[in-house]
Amino acid sequence: GKNGGYIRKITPTATEALAPKPSLTQQKLQADLQQAFFHNQSPSLRRTVEFVAERIGSNCVKHIKATLVAELVKRAEVILQDAMKAEDGNYDKLLDAVCSQLYQEGAQALIQGKEFCRKKVPEAVKILLPEETSAAVLNCAANIAVGLAIEKACSWLSTNIAALIKREVKATFSRMLKVQMLSQSSANEIILKKDCPPNCQHQTAFPSQIISEIKAQEKKMKKCGLLTWKACWEG
């Protein structure tokens, strides 16, 4: 994504996370505030917050796979379909080029992931906590759960999204190649039979049968010696 005009490139081998990490000081302060909050609440509230964060974080990753990644794979299919018509057979290079285009858009996973967590987590916390929970406690618990869910989801996505995109695109490309090969085989069979009259019961010979017949004729011609080709074929 863009950050002050700077466009970050994502590669499947990237080791540093896409999501900006807070400083150690910020992390410690946040942890201390959370501990202070939970210290004054029942243990069940903390378990609820952690449960919601874990569940929504996991659902977030599944959601991104089913929406953003699926959409990128469909786009890749269109690009690959057009490229295959003019490609000289260097499919590995083609696949890498298409994936490189999609890695940039894969960064949207973090944005969409955060939106998903911010929307779903407060709803879940409100449902699971007792009705008598005060608005202030409910709000604080929801904020903590949102942060934990985002951390879980975005940590996984920033590390794995590029590899996931490539894996799914590669699987789709393999299916496309198989379909193309089957189509070409069918087209060749149609060409072989196109001169047959209507209702013809002619069965096209397998390539192996044709090769065997050619070899048999070659042996026959060698035995013929000085006889003409026509005599060999007719004899």
UniProtKB/TrEMBL annotation:
Record-linked PANTHER family: CODANIN-1
Protein name listed in UniProt: Codanin-1 C-terminal domain-containing protein
Classification via InterPro entries: Codanin-1, Codanin-1_C
Originating species: Micrurus lemniscatus lemniscatus
Biological processes annotated in GO: chromatin organization
GO CC, alphabetical: nucleus
Domain Codanin-1 C-terminal: 5-81
